[in-house]
Amino acid sequence: MAETTKEWYVVNTYAGHENRVKENLERRIETMGLQDYLFRVVVAEEKEVEYKNGKEVEKVKNLFSGYVFVEMVMTDEAWYIVRNTPGVTGFIGSSGGGAKPFPVAEDEMEKILRRLGMSERQINVDFQIGDRVKILSGAFSGVEGTVEELNHETQTAVVLTILFGRETPTEISYGDLEKVEL
Predict the structure, then answer these.
(1) 37: buried, middle or exposed (CB in 10 Å: 19+, 13-18, 0-12)?
(2) Which residues contact 127 (CB under 8 A, 6 or more apart)?
(3) Sign of the alpha-carbon torsion through 99, 19, 66, 110
(4) What residue spans of 58-152 are helical by DSSP H?
(5) For the whole model, what pTM was predicted?
(6) pLDDT at 175
(7) DSSP code of residue 104
């Protein structure tokens, strides 16, 4: 494992303490001068709008309760500091016994960051509006549809699929689509 590669890792926390762990880690990065080893700390949260008593109420929903994503270079020192941060119970992907954890696959982390609107990576697509595409993953995996709309900013396409005998628009990430050659 290269000791100079910046990769994403999943840190397990006490449920409900994700933001506190994020603050603790960010404070430690500053006070301990770890800016060259620890980079971004992300709590995967989305805003949801609910209606209570006829009023709109905005709520924050944690997508991965009990988990925080940390972009870091896995050195002994950085690993030790993250593990011993208050609220952290360990790393996901470590077999224990002092073994360092495995990083999150790049494409998996990209999907999470894109969903949170934090991705800088642009995907070049070989399809356009009106083209036939196949959905590669998720609930609609294997389903084919027609591209109705492209949003290069969010890197998503609106795909018309046939669901229960009706044409249904579905927003799908570019990375989850493949052009179907006729």
Answers:
(1) buried
(2) 133, 147, 157, 177, 179
(3) negative
(4) 76-83, 106-115
(5) 0.64
(6) 79
(7) P
